[in-house]
Design a protein that fits this description.
Blueprint lengths: L12 H10 L6 H13 L3 E4 L6 H11 L3 E6 L6 H4 L1 E3 L1 H10 L13 E3 L1 H7 L4 E6 L6 H13 L1 E4 L3 E4 L5 E6 L7 H5 L2 E4 L5 H11 L5 H15 L9 H16 L6 H5 L8 H7 L13
Parallel strand pairs: 1-8, 1-9, 2-5, 5-8
Antiparallel strand pairs: 3-4, 6-7
Helix pairs in contact: 1-2, 9-10, 9-11, 10-11
């Protein structure tokens, strides 16, 4: 299988996994394989999973490994093409018209164009990674528009003409699966579901991201967060919360706070919803790492 010229040096899933590890993102074999195939085949990578499993961080790490600038399009309810493509700088156009001595001044040039993420990616496809974050938060109309964009990587600007990418940009889409995505979009992508990492991998992530945390503390925190994720919480703690809780409790302990009080006092780092705090408060000690940490 021919590998894209712009990912030379990443010639296998294992090579990508090693490069991601060097960039402090610990990916398992399945994610490394899916990401490698998307890169090698020139297809968008669709990462789905519940919030907090590291989808956005994966895209950023891939960008770092390839030495690319990550251009992020954050989707939201009501997002339209103008927010994703381009807008004309009308105040600047009006000012230029008022100041112009020539009535034939053309105010539809790049000087007056505000490029948004999709246009930015088309202009520099070999230097950027386009991250379309939380595509499931947009509506079906925007998803259909995006599908068309991913088909030919062109933008038509009525006033100036068509912008076509010199090569296919590298694209990563993420979804929290708050709604189903259209099958046509899924077919166009290499798909991967990211779940919460297993305890061993999550403890390694804690050690990599928070170097001040002891190995025993990392393992104890991961076990406690795992118990919390089994509860019907409004917001399940993500991997980032695991890392931050281990780091925060370690900081308090270094300042003289004993275990497990250090974990209790820093609980707001891992549980970030009042209903969740109220639900676990009566039995919170059962979820706190013990003195073994």
């Amino acid at each position: 299988m021919p590998v894209r010229a712009d990912i030379r040096g990443i010639d296998s899933p294992g090579a990508l996994q090693g490069a991601l590890t060097a960039a402090q993102y610990l990916a398992d074999d399945a994610l490394s394989t899916s990401a490698y195939l998307a890169l090698a085949l020139g297809k968008p990578l669709l990462l789905e999973g519940v919030p907090g499993v590291g989808k956005t961080e994966a895209a950023k790490a891939i960008g770092a490994v390839l030495g690319r600038n990550v251009i992020r399009l954050q989707c939201y309810e009501g997002i339209d093409a103008a927010a994703a493509l381009y807008e004309w700088n009308y105040p600047r156009q009006m000012l230029a018209i008022r100041q112009a001595e020539n009535s034939q001044l053309n105010v539809y040039t790049d000087e007056f164009l505000l490029a948004r993420p999709l246009l930015e990616a088309l202009r520099a496809p070999d230097e950027t990674l386009l991250l379309i974050d939380e595509i499931d938060r947009s509506d079906h109309e925007f998803e259909a528009f995006l599908l068309e964009f991913l088909s030919d990587f062109t933008i038509s600007i009525p006033e100036t003409g068509t912008v076509r990418a010199a090569s296919h940009p590298i694209v990563v889409l993420t979804s929290n699966r708050t709604r189903d995505l259209h099958e046509a979009l899924r077919r166009r992508c290499v798909y991967h579901w990211i779940d919460f990492p297993d305890p061993e991998l999550e403890a390694r992530i804690v050690m990599v991201r928070a170097s001040s945390v002891a190995e025993a503390t990392a393992a104890a925190v991961v076990a406690s967060v795992g118990l919390m994720r089994e509860e019907p919480l409004v917001k399940l703690p993500g991997v980032a919360e695991t890392v931050e809780w281990a780091e925060a409790a370690t900081l308090l302990n270094a300042q003289g706070e004993p275990w497990p009080a250090a974990f209790r006092r820093s609980i707001g780092v891992v549980l970030k919803d009042q209903d969740d705090l109220a639900q676990l408060s009566p039995q919170l000690d059962a979820f706190l790492p013990g003195e073994a940490a």
